[in-house]
């Protein structure tokens, strides 16, 4: 976060420009499909006593965290390949000979 401090705020004044910030989304956030956090503000009254508040998402009198929903991107894919095992080496398939299968599974989405 950058900005501040706010040098003075008269009664009724609202400051929306001094502070700003960003957060870099982590894999755990993508897996949770949400980022939740809060800010705390501290000011000094005329007697230099601290006055403080914990942020709310929509009200000056509540203290709910700010939730940011992240769009889900979950995808998976599989490729299956096969090899004929010509176990007697004669170039033909006989009863009892086998086919081996291999599987390549890929997480092609953004969530774990
Ligand atoms: Ca609220
Ligand atoms: Ca609050
Ligand atoms: Ca054979």
Can you walk through the features of this model?
With 112 residues, the chain is mainly beta. The protein has 2 domains: 1-71, no CATH class; 76-107, no CATH class. It is 5% helix and 34% strand. It contains 1 helix and 6 strands. The strands form 3 sheets. It has a two-stranded antiparallel sheet. A two-stranded antiparallel ribbon has the order 2-3. It is rod-shaped. The chain starts with 26 loop residues before the first helix and ends in a 5-residue tail after the last strand. 0% of the residues are buried. The mean pLDDT is 96. One calcium ion binds at residues 86, 88, 90, 92-94, 97. This is DUF7507 domain-containing protein. It comes from Nonlabens agnitus. Residues 41-72 are annotated as: Disordered.
Q: Nutshell version of this structure?
A:
This protein has 112 residues and is mainly beta.
Task: Give the topology, please.
Blueprint: H1 27-32, E1 34-37, E2 40-44, E3 50-54, E4 66-69, E5 76-85, E6 98-107
Antiparallel strand pairs: 1-4, 2-3, 5-6
Secondary-structure element order, as H and E? HEEEEEE
Distance between the termini: 29 Å
Q: What are the bound molecules?
A: calcium ion
Largest sheet: 2 strands, antiparallel
Stretches with pLDDT under 50, minimum 5 residues? none
Helix vs. strand class: mainly beta
Oligomer: single chain
The total domain count is 2
> How many separate helices?
1
- Strands, total number: 6
Cα-based radius of gyration, to the nearest Å: 30 Å
Spatial order of the strands forming the largest sheet: 1-4
Tell me, briefly, the overall form.
rod-shaped
